[in-house]
Design brief:
The chain has 252 residues and is mainly α. The protein has one domain (44-63, 74-247). 60% of the residues lie in helices and 0% in strands. It has helices at 2-20, 34-63, 69-76, 80-104, 106-116, 131-148, 152-170, 187-194, 209-215, 239-244.
């Protein structure tokens, strides 16, 4: 029931923003693939929560000896704002690494291409992710934060922030934040990551654009928006077909 309420709230909030401040005015609200992304929104939560819990429990049993209580006490003794900034940077650096690998390692791309298969972007497009990729990202990002001992409040703040930011960044809105574009990813920054324009491919991997600046993958033209979205390969249109797509023999 809580997922239904969350969906309705997000639909009302971001649907209103997309109606008032659309980036692409001719894009339909119930655009191509909308129902598939609704399925991703609801079913992925169940699969990812179960998978993340099982993998995390396994890792904790076998690697709890690596936890340093003294290090965790030091981390937790810091002011809350410092903890959040550190946790966000560490998490985004990990995410950047995984995300870039997902674009360069062929078998990882087989999972990540599902996310990039949307030919039109809106807030709901953020839900189109293969659950196995989501589990891997959750574990890879969460384990360092857990081992370092960040407080539950820091974890909670990061989880809320990291849940809302992608929804905003995929939304069909034309918000521009000239200063924030180099601090926090914004829609005009992230839309270029989804562009199929040749010059924009493999750019803007992070939710913390400073990391893209550090590694030379920052791309944000000032006077134009992406011409195209999506990928060159043909991705099946339904949720269940997309789940099994990475495991199917690749056609040449």
């Amino acid at each position: 029931m809580k997922f239904v309420i969350a969906f309705l709230v997000l639909w009302l909030l971001f649907g209103t923003l997309e109606w008032l401040y659309p980036l692409r005015k001719d894009q339909k609200h119930f655009r191509q693939g909308w129902l598939t992304d609704v399925a991703h929104f609801f079913f992925n939560h169940i699969l990812v929560n179960i998978g993340t819990y099982l993998v995390a429990a396994f890792l904790y049993i076998f690697f709890r000896g690596t936890i340093s209580p003294s290090l965790q006490i030091t981390v937790r003794s810091q002011p809350a704002l410092f903890q959040f900034v550190e946790a966000f940077f560490i998490a985004q650096l990990t995410f950047y690494t995984l995300h870039r690998l997902a674009h360069t390692v062929p078998w990882l791309w087989r999972f990540h291409v599902i996310h990039h298969s949307s030919a039109e972007l809106d807030w709901l497009a953020s839900a189109r992710l293969h659950p196995i990729e989501m589990i891997v990202v959750n574990i890879a990002v969460g384990v360092p934060l857990f081992l370092l001992g960040f407080t539950k409040e820091t974890f909670g703040a990061y989880l809320v922030f990291s849940a809302i930011l992608p929804i905003l960044n995929h939304s069909n809105t034309k918000f521009e934040f000239p200063i924030l574009n180099r601090i926090i990813a914004t829609p005009n920054f992230h839309h270029w990551h989804h562009s199929n324009d040749l010059e924009a491919r493999n750019k803007n991997f992070s939710g913390f654009p400073i990391i893209d600046l550090m590694f030379g993958t920052y791309y944000l033209p000032k006077t134009r928006s992406p011409e195209t979205y999506g990928v060159d390969e043909t991705i099946p249109p339904t949720y269940w077909q997309q789940l099994i797509y990475p495991f199917q023999p690749q056609k040449h």
